[in-house]
Amino acid sequence: MKGALAKEQSKAVLVGNICQTIVKAVLELNVKKGTISNLESEEPVVEVESVENKEDEEEAFSGNFILDFSFIRELDKKLICLWVSHRAKSDNSHTYFWGLVDEVRQVRKRDPNSLCIFVILGNKRGWKDWIFPASLLFFDYTFFIGDLRGDNILNFTFTNSKNIEDCAKKRLIVSETEDIDAIVQDMLNKGLSPDSIKEIARKALNGAEINGENESYYSRILKIYNSLKKNLSIQEFKNNEFVTQFYSEIQKLSRPLDSAREISTMVHKTGILEATAYLYVLLFRSVKRSEIIEVLRKFYDDENLAKTACDSLVCRRILLDKNSFLEVNPEIIAVLVKNIENMKGTQCTRDDLIVEFAYKPILPKLSKAQLQVLQKVKDVHLLSDGIDKILDTIYGQIQESNGKFGEYDLKVSKPTLRALYNILKNRKSLIKRREKILSDLLSVLSKNKLISEDSGRIQVKVSIEVDQDWYLFLHNLTTRTDLFDPYVLFLNKEYREGSVANAWSELMQVWGTDKLMEVIEKADENGIRIFFEVAICAVGESSTTVRNITETAVASTGIWAFLRGDRNLSTSVKESISRFLNERRVLYHNWETISEEILKKRIQQIKRNSRINVLEEIVFAGLSQAKLIFLGTPEKQGDVYLRSMLNEVGLKCSISSSNGSRVEKRGEDFVVPTERGTCIAIQCRASPQSYEARRMAGHSLQFYVEWKNDRWVLRGNLVHVAIVDGNWKKEWVENLLDAGYDKVFSADEINQLLEYLKSSGAMKLSTHAYFEKLYELQSYFLTKEWTPSEILEQINKLKSIMQ
What we know:
The chain is α+β, with helices and mostly antiparallel strands. It is built from 34 helices and 25 strands. It has five domains: 3-249, no CATH class; 270-328; 331-464, no CATH class; 489-608, no CATH class; 613-801, 3-Layer(aba) Sandwich (Trna Endonuclease, Chain: A, domain 1). The strands form nine sheets. It has a six-stranded mixed sheet, sandwiched between helices. Strands 19-20-23-25 form a four-stranded mixed sheet, sandwiched between helices. A three-stranded antiparallel sheet has the order 9-11-10. The longest helix is centred in the first third of the chain and has 23 residues, at 11-33.
């Protein structure tokens, strides 16, 4: 283990260590009895190259993909492999789970008759509920030993296979005890050091006596040990025939490994830097080249990479270099005009541009009904009047009682209008800023006679020198989320320090819950965010502490998402934070220190924001430019939902109502149908770590098979390819090929990917209004999970709308 991650101070590391110690003690007892031999164990290993803060460190250590124990059963010389886990968070437990599935695949390939066991020690709420029954499709046995919180883990059904359901319920072995996490937390609260806690656990498991104040911890750990010892009946374990048969089918997928090679690209990093540089210059209009290079250098501590990003934008004519000052080329708006014409198949209007440039960042937040209202606002040409006029109009409609919007027959409920009004009001500063930038750039284009405008319709008069494809990539990337603009604003020292200083000054004046709420209610969402961030930094509490001190689980989740930048705040959550701040008036930092802390946080938010996916955006652009028919977009929830093994056997899970009891939809990033009767699924991954290669492989395995005549059968018409970025070792690429991926491309091989798709018979869409028809086609595939055969059948039915 490397760097800071080698420290065993985090609770997750400590709990993981004790979990392994408990299981190892049970297995060593079996060695002494002569039940098993050749016991081998692995120390937890964590790939840490992209882990950049303490919270990620804890998450990384909350589980690993390495086989924990293997041994030989003396009775029949069978190899038995065992994985041990607890989870700290449920939101990405599925990611960890699919990594384990690929680990099992690798074990079963080496020894098809091996027996694989999954042991979960505590923290039931750290797992999505569907994972408990789903694990029995991949492991021979699953154990859960811990606090059930009143839930029944066996409350699931496989509606399409009674045989699998009966088998799973016999092999999901549950024992209710205290959670090991709770015991460790109590000892930490008592002030015991990690070394002392491990020593108590070791003595308990070795049978040593402990007297005094630590005796209770001894007995609590021993209860978990005894429960596992009682249920881990190694002599009686048998292979699950359905699991064995599944892996037997999966082994047929393995591809030749001779095409594997080490991959080293920086497409994600350079894409993030170029998008940030473009948006920074767009927002601040004219920026010293040295200033933006210094800002970008802080992202990856690489000045050459920062300079290359700026040089690329200048070379592509997206930015103009005027005496070492960078400005945005006004011709980017002409690029948008051309793109809108291509998408609509009709001439672009000023209103079209306003939606695309000023409103696009908030569109993902709007419901279908709210989008219809915005379309009506566009139809009556209110957009050109500005956001203030639009807010006044919508507010006036809220006061009406006829349920109509203006003179139109569109029926709009007051809750819909009110929700839209609040979203627009909270994003007013963002929209107004972009309206002003668009107006200024259009004025320059018109003055220089590069465009003409007649009755609101815009026509480009000259050829465009901007690299159009690359600009559209940057535009789409920076408008996928309404958070990118505010993040980039705070990279500017003057803007950031002014905002932080103002928030600090307000904080000094408004102590008291009522006064805090009064300030909050007057601010838009960005104002609320910076005020709370400054206040929380000022009182010296970590985001984890803030999450934990809130009164309810709902409030806690809301604050945690808010601090990550993923969610707005409800009034109840605002009140919760206000109470928290009012109770902690001691200030540990000044505004200058907080300014630097917020800068570091904003850089991390830009680099790690899940809405900003450089690789998916590039693939999307490549598929679009080739005019291919494909499903999937880089937008939030833009994956193509495919029918998985869990759908095939009809998994229904109702363990609890609070922890992921719904079996969520699953899919891949893109799917390209072909004329040859196959579907090619594309997985994009810019995280160069060994566990990503395992997770990708395990996740894809679930889509390859269907349930027929009480057995698993390969579909035969689904092909997977991967496109990866970063430093990927050769063995990680080999792992993907071994798990059935047909090809693995590097991130700079988009052209090779497109050639592969074309040579495989990818369908093309020959129409002038390509995007309009493509989006219409894709809308048919949003509601359910699809098999490859169903996708092909549906597309053939829809051919009439595609031409």
